[in-house]
Amino acid sequence: MQIIEVLLPAIAFIIGSVPCGLLLTRTFASVDIRQKGSGNIGATNVRRIAGSRLGALTLIGDMSKGAIPVYFALSMADMQEIRGAFYISLVILSAFLGHLYPIFMKFKDGGKGVATAAGAFLVISPTAFAVVLSVFIIVVRYCRKASLGSLAAAAVLPIAIWITAGSGVLTGCAGVITLFICFRHKDNIRRLLSGTEPEIRL
Predict the structure, then answer these.
(1) For the segment 3-45, what is each residue's pLDDT rounded down to a tens digit?
(2) CA 158/CA 165 separation, integer angstroms
(3) Which of 88, 127, 119, 95 is nearest to 18 (CA)?
(4) Where would you tag: which of 113, 140, 156, 173 has the fewest CB atoms within 10 A of its CB?
């Protein structure tokens, strides 16, 4: 168990690095998703280019990359203890950064991390996940911009984690993830400001 505990952050990074959207679209749609649409390997671009079914499978896969390592981390550490919260945060960030900078793609062309972060925090606090998901759905239904929904959900995430989990360490982890998500959405933010961001319907 101690060996697994030591290796889990590295394993989480490797799991996070699996490019679900790229693998699914290459296998079932014969396209390189990096060359289509926004060029992102995440669920939104997959849905736009290859259809709702592959988009949904990509979403499930990317969420699982965050959920699975964190599930095991919670079995080995108590998130109410500072040491345990730091360890769990390390595992969350490892899976998240693996998705952003995948080892299997030479640390480039990764996704934006929204689904992987969502999967991780779903395990930490289903209530916080429900709040964040509700914000995403409301914003997307009203504005029809997936990127705006993702940014709004990311902004709410640290607050939701603080209220539901009561851990300053995990709240800080959520805050770091929010900053990364905003950075990865910088092109989307420019398009939102210029009014050229593509629309999406739920």
Answers:
(1) 888 999 999 999 999 999 999 999 999 898 999 888 889 998 9
(2) 10
(3) 95
(4) 156
